[in-house]
Design a protein that fits this description.
Radius of gyration: 23 Å
Helix content: 55-70%
Order of helices and strands: HHEHEEEHHHHHHHH
Strand order of the largest sheet: 2-1-3-4
Strand content: 5-15%
CATH class of one domain: Mainly Alpha
Shape: globular
CATH topology of one domain: Glutathione S-transferase Yfyf (Class Pi), Chain A, domain 2
Structural class: alpha+beta
Oligomer: single chain
Largest sheet: 4 strands, mixed
Length: 290
């Protein structure tokens, strides 16, 4: 040990810096490797033939603050598939949340989760749709998830008039909120919609909502009297704007401007979320497993 200290003292400043950086890197790699080994050893065993739904904690006014968690859990309820919630920030092997495990198989991305379960369990929530209607439903889903989602993300995270709702809900520090916003800016810039002005983003949001409202009209669900798979995506996205758009300046947008979408949200809630009040954190209630 003394010889090592003597050697370190004889190094010049640049060599000492390189030595310190090298030691830090080795320590970090060792810690990460040890953590992974520990996680593997502590891997929890879940019941077979039960979907394990990994998602962040519950939201204050809707069951989740992410539309994709509401989408996936609504699908499981609509398809009557047994599932169990695991709340936390553990990502899938693809680095995404929410995700599922089924009999030990991890699956990331909500659409791939649904496709896999459809195949494994013989589920078809679109069986009443014609080929043309399936195409329309798919187009509406893509618009909702790949266009409207990014608009709502910018309005919630970047353009909110009052950030206190986010700070209180997630227990974020202002610095961490700044980090999240920086990440959203980077994502939306790369996606493309982040290159527009706030006014342009808001106008696009109105157009998407109007298109969905015009298409649903007086129908009970997206494609008619019976819900289909795309309703899960649509309800997940609308749940954010209808119930928990707090601080955005658009809290009552759907209720006031698109009453048929508000009625649609209430129908989906009544049909598939009879325990809604037990699945939100507002008022002190918190649901852990299903």
């Amino acid at each position: 040990m003394e010889s090592l200290l003597e050697t370190f003292r004889n190094l010049d400043l640049s060599q000492k810096i390189l030595y310190g950086v090298g030691c830090a890197a080795v320590t970090t790699v060792s810690f990460v490797a040890l953590r992974k080994l520990t996680q593997k050893e502590k891997r929890k065993e879940y019941p077979r033939d039960t979907v394990i739904l990994h998602q962040i904690g519950r939201g204050p006014y809707a069951p989740s603050m992410t539309p994709f968690a509401v989408k996936l859990e609504t699908y499981l309820r609509m398809a009557r598939i047994p599932y169990q919630n695991v709340h936390g920030m553990q990502p899938s092997p693809k680095g995404k949340v929410p995700w599922i495990e089924y009999n030990g198989q991890p699956i990331g991305d909500t659409t791939l989760c649904i496709n896999c379960l459809n195949q494994k369990l013989g589920v078809d929530l679109n069986k009443r749709l014609s080929p043309a209607d399936k195409g329309i439903a798919q187009a509406m889903q893509v618009m909702t998830e790949e266009h409207l989602y990014w608009l709502l993300a910018q309005i919630r995270w970047l353009y909110s008039r009052d950030a206190s709702f986010i700070l209180e809900t997630f227990k974020f520090s202002k610095f961490f909120l700044w980090m999240i916003r920086r990440h959203i800016r980077k994502q939306t810039w790369s996606q493309g919609l982040g290159r527009h002005t706030e006014e342009e983003v808001v106008e696009m949001m109105y157009k998407d909502f109007q298109s969905i409202s015009d298409f649903i009209g007086m129908k009970k669900f997206l494609m008619g009297d019976d819900p289909c798979e795309a309703d899960c995506s649509l309800f997940g996205m609308l749940s954010q704007a209808y119930w928990q758009f707090n601080g955005s300046g658009f809290e009552s947008l759907i209720k006031d401007k698109y009453p048929n979408l508000a009625a649609y949200c209430e129908r989906m809630k009544e049909a598939f979320w009879p325990d809604w009040d037990q699945c939100i954190t507002h008022g002190g209630t918190r649901e852990a497993t299903k």
